[in-house]
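Deliverable D2.4 — example input (structure tokens):
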């Protein structure tokens, strides 16, 4: 790929550790969700909502990566969960836990935060077509 941006991705035991950490996030979010008493219908409806951010790739890889990373950073669900302690909205914490579960599941499978060089370039690995390309 001429003019490609070099991207970094973790490898080996560090990647495995990050994926185990993500699996722990997923399992903890599920356990806390069960404890919250929220229904599984809500979970089923919202679990894939963060992936709607991929639509921003229609605006190009830089816009797409920014939107995807915003929806797949743990900062969002942490802020939402924290706000649930101050705002009398009973759905805030369950929504934050669903969001965190989504992020944990994605990262456990190796889908990391995106670089603006292309959808397949992530901090955990190259995915999809990008995996087959040299670089």
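Example output (designed residues):
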């Amino acid at each position: 790929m001429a003019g490609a941006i070099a991207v970094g991705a973790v490898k080996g035991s560090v990647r495995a550790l990050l994926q185990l950490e993500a699996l722990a996030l997923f399992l903890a979010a599920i356990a806390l969700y069960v404890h919250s008493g929220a229904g599984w219908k809500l979970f089923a409806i919202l679990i894939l909502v963060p992936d709607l951010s991929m639509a921003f790739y229609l605006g190009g890889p830089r816009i797409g990566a920014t939107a995807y990373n915003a929806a797949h950073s743990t900062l969002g669900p942490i802020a939402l969960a924290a706000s649930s302690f101050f705002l009398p909205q009973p759905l805030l914490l369950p929504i934050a836990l669903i969001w965190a579960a989504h992020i944990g599941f994605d990262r456990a499978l190796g889908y990391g935060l995106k670089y603006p060089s292309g959808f397949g370039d992530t901090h955990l690995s190259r995915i999809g077509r990008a995996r087959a390309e040299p670089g």
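Confidence is low (pLDDT under 50) at residues 1-5.
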